[in-house]
Amino acid sequence: MKIFVEKNKDGLGEASGKLAAKFIKNAILKNGVANIILATGNSQIGTLKQLVKEDIEWNKVVMFHLDEYVGLPESHPSSFRRFLKRRFLEKVPSLKTSYLINGEKDALIECNRLNNIIENYPIDVALVGIGENGHLAFNDPPADFATYQPYILVSLNKACKQQQVSEGWFRSIDEVPARAISMSCNQILKSQYIICAVPDSRKAIAVKYCTENPVSNMFPASILQLHSDCSVFLDKFSSSLLDFKNRT
User: Fold this and answer.
1) Minimal CA–CA distance to 191: which of 17, 5, 38, 29?
2) Is the pLDDT of residue 248 over 80?
3) Confidence tier at 245 by pLDDT (50, 70, 90)
4) 167 falls in which pLDDT band (50, 70, 90)?
5) Using one digit for the tens of pLDDT, what is the confidence trace for 193-204?
6) Which residue range(s) make up the domain with 18?
7) How many domains does the chain have?
8) What is the pLDDT of residue 247?
9) I need a labelling partner for 173 at 20 to 30 A (CA). Which of 32, 124, 241, 244 fits?
């Protein structure tokens, strides 16, 4: 795990977006196509803003969607499909293919549909974040580290729901859907490169637990420590509790 600390959120987004672009271009050069995973939420806004500025042959890029609420219509302001369409897909209309999660359909049928698709696409680059409760995608603690199913149906815990409210996506916990379709932790780890963007002081405790403590499903994003090429981009706030003196 490689950790980079930028001065502010803008620098974090720029640096993570540029590294993602580099990996995508390399994959296209090597394989003729790049398969990527995109995340959503406040932590990803800067990364996606930079990524769409990059000179990439988007007609050679296939995009997969990290997670989505169950039962939330795309018209809802908090829909992750809506987020990706507005911040990415509408800005790169020449994209080869995109596979979005439809949480309005039967969740298990949708998981099976996506699982049958993604098994044919080895992932080159995954963009992810870390939740305030340490979750990776919507794999809340205690996360399922045993499953190798690419997409799974998960329940959202109270801390996860509260984060969505605190970030302004919902007015109250009661409005946050109880379940979501999420890419599993092991599927994320299958990516050749992982880029994790984590701004803000409210993520500082989770960042410390997930990067400096032993790998545990109680801090799901700690599993990123096991990946051979994971780059974590932080700002001075999210990195404020790290003990860099003990890092190599």
Assistant:
1) 38
2) no
3) very low
4) confident
5) 999 999 999 999
6) 2-246
7) 1
8) 47
9) 241
* CATH number where 99 lies: 3.40.50.1360
Please give the C-alpha separations between residue 185 and each of 46, 48, 209, in angstroms, as whole numbers. Answer: 23, 22, 17
Q: How many CB atoms lie within 10 A of CB 21?
A: 18
Contacts 24+ apart (CB under 8 A), 74-80: 74/104, 77/169, 78/164, 78/169, 78/170, 80/40
Give the tens place of pLDDT for each residue, 130-159: 999 999 999 999 999 999 999 999 999 998
C-alpha span between 45 and 198 (Å, rounded) = 11
Question: Bridge-partner residues for 179, per DSSP?
Answer: 155
